[in-house]
Specification:
- This protein has 121 residues and is mainly alpha-helical.
- The protein is 51% helix and 0% strand.
- The protein has a domain at 22-38 and 51-116.
- The chain contains 4 helices and no strands.
Length: 121
């Protein structure tokens, strides 16, 4: 009998725990999107720890907030820049003080919709 080359199906009863913070959700989103752009094939439910969403779900929230002008281009740029670095801006650094304020504002704007969707605890 030939062996199947298919991926195992995700377990439908695997409960996905929400991310503890908006920051953790954002860093995961950036890492997952970067992996996808680099060619990784991500499938729902295939990780050892199921996630409560897909990366595009978080990006859709960012897009919606940007279109409603709750997030400015500066917010999105700071989210992208520091998200790629996987490190939030340092509010104690003179050079990063403005970025830290924008980062905090962006995460505060993201929190309610991500909590409403069950993505963040």
């Amino acid at each position: 009998m030939a062996q199947s080359h298919r991926q195992p199906r995700p377990a439908p009863d695997a409960a996905a725990d929400p991310f503890p913070t908006v920051e953790a959700a954002w860093f995961w989103c950036v890492q997952a999107r970067t992996a996808q752009i680099q060619g990784a094939r991500l499938a729902a439910g295939m990780s050892d720890r199921p996630k409560p969403c897909e990366p595009l779900d978080i990006l859709a929230v960012v897009d919606r907030l940007y279109r409603r002008r709750r997030l400015l281009a500066e917010h999105v740029q700071v989210l992208a820049q520091y998200g790629r670095q996987l490190l939030p801006p340092d509010p104690d650094s003179r050079r990063e003080r403005r970025a830290a304020a924008l980062w905090a504002e962006a995460l505060a704007a993201l929190a309610p919709p991500l909590q409403d969707k069950g993505i963040v605890a």
